[in-house]
Design goal:
The chain is mainly α. It contains 21 helices and no strands. Helix 3 crosses helix 15 (about 330-365).
């Protein structure tokens, strides 16, 4: 593959990186206390929160992996997106009123009011581990297309680490200084850049393919690639109506109701109603965003259907290198960078917020308004930015699409978190020990499901028992984990006569 990345493209990327970093530093230049730093004084308009939520869900994974799903299959991923909308509606009606009633900064504070400090700390640690792993994957994913597009500016073994370090450093700078206000407003720019990049790819694919988009859609329809609903029921297929609506809904309930990365943005809204508008609106925007990137995949299939690629994640970058004109090529690279920087910055701030409010403050007994709390929060942001960046450097390349890897990591622990919240809301008898036991068993069960093949190989005597779980698709992970957690916690609660009030509005 020849290198077409030119001076104009480099200037576009450098201008974007410099502009975004400077803008983030400017909008977040005034931080009064930890509340200002982590939830922007709860003064962000709903539409900005909405696009911030969308941008936080969109990284290089979306940009390079989702087109690959349509290229290799069909539009079945939209079934999962429909489930995302249903899950958001549940979060808007069930969890958000409780968060705003408590005037909270982190999601896990709510569990302390119901169960106790140990439960809050336990769920916070689960979040920290999950988000740290998942976002290291996302940062790593950015280096894949950059290595393909920019190389051979330098050998790939040096280019990927260099890309990761540069992106990590610049993102940490404005996130460390600007807090959540810088995160939200820079994400608006980043969302616009990567959506423009996707739309540009749509136009160029139509222009470069015989018959344009009408020809592409006719060929895709004849090949069955326009199918987006599959009524078959199997636990091994992630793209059926059942795994999409049910599994996707539970995944969205967990990711948008218990994951601090999203909850923190919603808590930055001016009111409960604004937060509800933002979360439901984001589901609709995400649905159409995935249509855009899946359509890119269909266009790539029409253009490259006879070629062989090492992984589906290389298909879109190959088109970018071969077909994008100079200037636009730089914009596309900036779009990939934008998508990752938005998720990376949000992850750093949410990890720092959880560490500060759920671990640091309970241990030190300081208040959120203490100047030392703001200072500690910034230090935690710096530390987590370093961890995510170096975690990405350690991630190995493989044949599995990175979007599947990241979603699988998140789904692995989301079930236990969501189950803990459901215990607090629906099971009046549940106590702290029941919640922690339920979540612990839920995590253990999901470890057996996710790593069934590895465990069965290492311990042959367990192989027959674990074999049925080897083919369970990732959208079912959250539902399984939630069910195991709630059942275990409920059964445990019946071993004690005590009862506690459920989480109320």
């Amino acid at each position: 593959m020849s290198n077409r990345f030119g001076v104009i493209d480099l200037l576009v990327v450098v201008a974007y990186l410099a502009g975004t970093t400077a803008f983030g530093l400017w909008v977040g230049r005034k931080q009064k206390n930890a509340t200002s730093y982590f939830v922007a004084d709860r003064d962000i308009p709903w539409w900005a929160v909405m696009f911030s939520v969308v941008a936080s869900e969109t990284s290089a994974l979306t940009f390079i992996s989702i087109p690959g799903l349509a290229y290799a299959g069909n539009l079945g991923f939209l079934q999962v997106c429909a489930g995302y909308i249903l899950g958001r509606i549940v979060v808007a009606t069930l969890l958000l009123p409780r968060y705003f009633a408590g005037n909270l900064v982190t999601a896990y504070t709510l569990l302390e009011t119901r169960f106790g400090t140990a439960t809050r700390r336990f769920t916070a640690i689960i979040f920290l581990a999950t988000r740290g792993l998942a976002d290291s994957v996302r940062v790593f994913a950015t280096a894949i297309p950059l290595a393909l597009i920019i190389g051979p500016v330098m050998p790939r073994e040096y280019l990927m680490p260099t890309a990761i370090l540069v992106l990590g450093l610049l993102t940490v700078v404005y996130t460390y200084k600007g807090g959540m206000r810088a995160v939200v407003w820079t994400e608006l720019i980043q969302a616009g850049v990567y959506l423009l990049g996707g739309a540009s790819a749509i136009v160029l694919l139509g222009m470069s393919t015989v018959g344009g988009w009408r020809g592409i859609l006719n060929a895709a329809g004849a090949a069955g690639k326009l199918q987006f609903v599959d009524f078959s029921f199997t636990l091994s297929n992630p793209h059926t109506i059942w795994s999409g609506l049910i599994g996707g809904a539970f995944l969205a309930m967990a990711s948008h109701g218990t994951d601090q990365l999203i909850v923190q943005r919603l808590l930055s809204a001016r009111s409960l109603r604004d937060a509800q508008r933002a979360i439901i609106g984001s589901g609709i925007v995400v649905f159409f965003q995935f249509i855009l990137f899946l359509m890119v995949g269909l266009g790539l299939w029409a253009a490259y259907g006879t070629r062989t690629f090492a992984t589906t994640d290389e298909i879109f970058p190959t088109f970018i290198v071969e077909q994008m004109p100079h200037g636009l090529l730089g914009l596309i690279v900036a779009a990939i960078v934008a998508a990752t920087m938005s998720t990376h910055s949000g992850a750093i701030n949410s990890l720092a917020a959880t560490t500060t409010h759920d671990i640091y403050l309970p241990l030190t007994k300081r208040s959120a308004d203490d100047p030392l709390t703001l200072r500690a929060g910034k230090r935690f942001a710096l530390a987590w930015g370093t961890v995510l960046t170096f975690g990405a450097l350690l991630f190995p390349e493989g044949r599995t699409p990175v979007v599947v890897i990241a979603l699988s990591i998140a789904s692995f622990t989301y079930g236990a978190l969501l189950g803990g919240f459901f215990l607090g809301i629906f099971v009046k008898r549940a106590q702290q020990r029941d919640a922690i036991l339920g979540m612990s068993v839920g995590l253990t069960a999901m470890a057996l499901v996710v790593f069934a093949k590895i465990i069965g190989t290492a311990i042959p005597v367990l192989a027959p028992l674990l074999h049925p779980f080897e083919s369970v698709a990732w959208p079912w992970y959250v539902l399984i984990g939630t069910t195991v957690t709630v059942l275990t916690g409920t059964l445990s609660s019946w071993t004690t006569p005590r009862s506690s009030p459920p989480l109320s509005t």
